[in-house]
From TrEMBL:
The gene is rsgA. Binds 1 zinc ion per subunit. The keyword Cell membrane does not apply. One of several proteins that assist in the late maturation steps of the functional core of the 30S ribosomal subunit. Helps release RbfA from mature subunits. May play a role in the assembly of ribosomal proteins into the subunit. Circularly permuted GTPase that catalyzes slow GTP hydrolysis, GTPase activity is stimulated by the 30S ribosomal subunit. GTP binds at T119, K120, T121, D122, G174, Q175, T176, G177, A178, G179, K180, S181, T182. Gene3D superfamilies: Nucleic acid-binding proteins, P-loop containing nucleotide triphosphate hydrolases, Probable gtpase engc, domain 3. Its main location: cytoplasm. Monomer. Associates with 30S ribosomal subunit, binds 16S rRNA. Its EC number is 3.6.1.-. Keywords: Cytoplasm, GTP-binding, Hydrolase, Metal-binding, Nucleotide-binding, Ribosome biogenesis, RNA-binding, rRNA-binding, Zinc. This is Small ribosomal subunit biogenesis GTPase RsgA. Belongs to the TRAFAC class YlqF/YawG GTPase family. RsgA subfamily. InterPro entries: G_CP_dom (IPR030378), NA-bd_OB-fold (IPR012340), P-loop_NTPase (IPR027417), Ribosome_biogen_GTPase_RsgA (IPR004881), RsgA_GTPase_dom (IPR010914), RsgA_N (IPR031944). It holds the Pfam family RsgA_N.
Amino acid sequence: MADSEQLEGRIIRQLSGFYDLDVAGTIYRTRGRGNLRKEKITPLVGDFATFTPGAGPDDEGYLLALAPRKNALVRPPVANIDQAILVVAAAQPDFSLNLLDRFLIYLEGKQIHAEIYVTKTDLVTASQLADIQTALRGYEAIGYRTFLSQPPFAAATLDAVRASFKDQLTIFTGQTGAGKSTLINHLVPGLELATGEISKALNRGKHTTRTTELFMAAGGLVADTPGFSSLGLLDVTLDDLRERFPEFNAVADQCKFRSCQHVKEPGCAVKAAVAAGTIMPSRYDNYLQFREELSGQRPVYTKK
Ligand SMILES: Nc1nc2c(ncn2[C@@H]2O[C@H](COP(=O)(O)OP(=O)(O)OP(=O)(O)O)[C@@H](O)[C@H]2O)c(=O)[nH]1
Ligand SMILES: [Zn+2]
């Protein structure tokens, strides 16, 4: 292989100084290079990179440069994420539309498309389940796909989620204990992530150097570590908050004032839509509550 040859690929794994890049199904092992470190750029899985391939197994290539990222997260450490499966428990922890909206706002800010998956449907009554289903229909109308399986992990539901992986880099996120690892294990057999607090505590001791890896599943890439829980979700300015509600954006050009915050202004199309029942009242209430938090009038949400 000529020394000057350059290839483009996507980092799918990193381990002690090495980066594995995927180029149309072929994996190349490379090393990081001083110039990247000098620029204080830490390559992440999900990064698109140019590299020089090495000559063979004992001659690795070098990473040369990273392409600009569309987004990047710290937890999990992944770049260029397309979508998140937002895992929400029907119970244990309690189903919360407020927390659900916080996650959605966060993901909107990172330009990560969200799909909502409800777990633990076996732990609620039929009437509680019906309420959750009603709420999910509201989120579907906004444009978020939702999945609810009764009993949990029915094959048809899992197939539908997998079908959404194609050509996407998917991460899983949601509240602690919502069932993210359990769900990933059902969706990507063979990963066998530890689930439940005790087994995870044991695992942490054993695999302290473990990093995130991307797995090919159903024609896409899936991160094998679940993401952030609920801390710091409201990382948005008061002024940008309204833009993170897609259903507000859909009608906001009909507000009388261009700068309408959808609070007290006359001729507000968002408030009209809430009154007409086309915007979920819970979404609007949460918007107002988040505004109060952001303007410092109420304590922010803290993790239990
Ligand atoms: N009854 C019931 N239990 C479930 C279901 N899904 C997950 N669990 C249980 O819920 C607990 C938490 O599940 P995990 O998959 O570890 O949750 P997690 O979201 O990965 O948790 P963290 O890593 O702490 O963020 C485990 O004991 C699971 O066995 C479900 O559909 N029904
Ligand atoms: Zn308005």
